[in-house]
Design goal:
Helix content: 40-55%
Mean pLDDT: 78
Number of strands: 2
Radius of gyration: 22 Å
Number of helices: 4
Order of helices and strands: EEHHHH
Structural class: alpha+beta
Strand order of the largest sheet: 1-2
Shape: extended
Distance between the termini: 59 Å
Oligomer: single chain
């Protein structure tokens, strides 16, 4: 669990103690305090993290359909907003061969 509550609560129906997620407002307040503590002047919200995540995936050459699936967007147009913001155009498509290491042209020995 990414953001658990500090305490457990017991389900009255079955008597099992469980830890629930933080309330949205609790996380938002903590996030706002963290942004203020580090001195970020821009408006930053937890939703900004989703945009950063998508942007970095696209910059790293991930397929837009993969990003769409990870973000849970039903419509590709919503995901396309990230590409529009990147202003990469055709630069968003990367050659998969760039990940291969070129063999050395120099050989050791005589």
């Amino acid at each position: 669990m990414a953001f658990p509550q500090d305490y457990h609560s017991t389900d009255p129906r079955i008597g099992v103690a469980r830890r629930h997620h933080l309330y949205d407002q609790t996380f938002q307040r903590a996030f706002k305090c963290a942004v203020e503590d580090v001195g970020i002047a821009k408006t930053v919200t937890p939703h900004t993290l989703r945009h950063c995540f998508a942007t970095h995936l696209l910059q790293d050459g991930f397929n837009i359909r993969t990003v769409q699936d990870l973000l849970g967007h039903a419509d590709l147009a919503t995901t396309m907003i990230c590409i529009h913001e990147l202003k990469l155009g055709g630069g968003a498509v990367r050659n998969p061969f760039r990940l291969l290491v070129a063999p050395s042209r120099h050989q050791s020995g005589p």
